[in-house]
Specification:
The protein is mostly beta strands. 1% of the residues lie in helices and 49% in strands. The chain is built from one helix and 26 strands. The longest helix has 4 residues.
């Protein structure tokens, strides 16, 4: 019997201040970023339809893309994730596909409805990769997660089956932990499944904001909305909130797009800019 439980994390939120250590303004509409094992940031710009590599010193190493449907083009990219084996996956929303590149941005593979084995209504909006190479794809029109094997072939789905507490209603983002926990952002909840799609628990985020993305740290989850960044520590239950009024050293007018916590550095992405911040003591 499947054990279903709900973990409530609404009770302890502390405001946190961060100091902007550096920033760059390079993008038209950056929407998502991911960290490589080499500590570079991969950033997708939705309006420019590009993938850029940004080094630790905020210089552009390389840019790939432009609007189109070829193997080095995108049309409204919505998500990017990099893996432990240096592969890079870009969710190419309007082209209804996912593009895989190697660490040097050389094209490797296309995942679409025909290669995966699903119907033509397939519309990916986000994806995550396990250490075994399984891909978990948020199919936004069907409100489900599709699981594929390392060859990109569908091996199952979950979230749309009507299981109590685990059905998805408006999934937006997904992340896979080193322990192969699959975490799906659905409205103001993060639903947690195992790698086979069995539901485990739910983390509730504050309901008064438009949560749009999640990323993982060694100890927890970072959730980002247009106006807030919530850092949840799953080891000790503590939660910190960063908002625009608690950012020191820069006046950020644009909505937040995404956030990554790398050791003690909070990387904040907006439509035009990347900010690298440290926590104020």
């Amino acid at each position: 019997m499947l054990l279903v439980c709900t973990l409530m994390l609404l009770q302890v939120y502390q405001n946190a201040s961060v100091v902007v250590e550096s920033s760059i303004t390079l993008f038209a509409n950056a929407v998502s970023f991911s960290l490589s094992v080499e500590k570079n940031l991969f950033i997708v710009d939705q309006d420019n339809n590009t993938l850029s590599v940004v080094s630790a010193n905020n210089s552009i190493v390389e840019t790939l893309g432009g609007r189109g449907w070829g193997t080095e083009s995108f049309d409204t990219p919505t998500d990017i994730t990099s893996t432990f084996v240096l592969d890079i996956f870009v969710v190419d929303y309007s082209n209804r596909r996912i593009m895989r590149f190697d660490k040097n941005l050389h094209f490797a593979q296309i995942y679409n409805h025909s290669s995966i084995g699903v119907d033509e209504r397939f519309r990916p909006i986000a994806c995550g990769i396990s250490r075994q190479g399984d891909m978990f794809i948020v199919d936004v029109d069907a409100n489900r997660v599709i699981r594929t094997n390392s060859r990109g072939q569908m091996t199952g789905e979950f979230g749309s089956l009507g299981v109590p507490n685990s059905t998805l209603s408006r999934p937006k983002d997904i992340a896979v932990s080193r322990d192969d926990e699959v975490m799906v952002l659905d409205k103001s909840n993060v639903l947690i499944y195992d790698r086979f799609g069995n539901y485990a628990s739910t983390i509730e985020l504050p309901k008064d904001t438009d949560w749009k993305s999640i990323s993982l740290t060694d100890s927890g989850i970072v959730a980002t909305s247009s106006s807030q960044i919530c850092i949840l520590n799953r080891l000790n239950g503590e939660s910190r909130i960063v908002n625009k009024t608690s950012i020191i050293g820069a006046s950020i007018k644009e909505p937040f797009s995404d956030a990554l916590l790398v050791q003690n550095t909070l990387n904040i992405l907006t439509a035009s800019s990347l900010y690298r911040c440290s926590f104020s003591q």
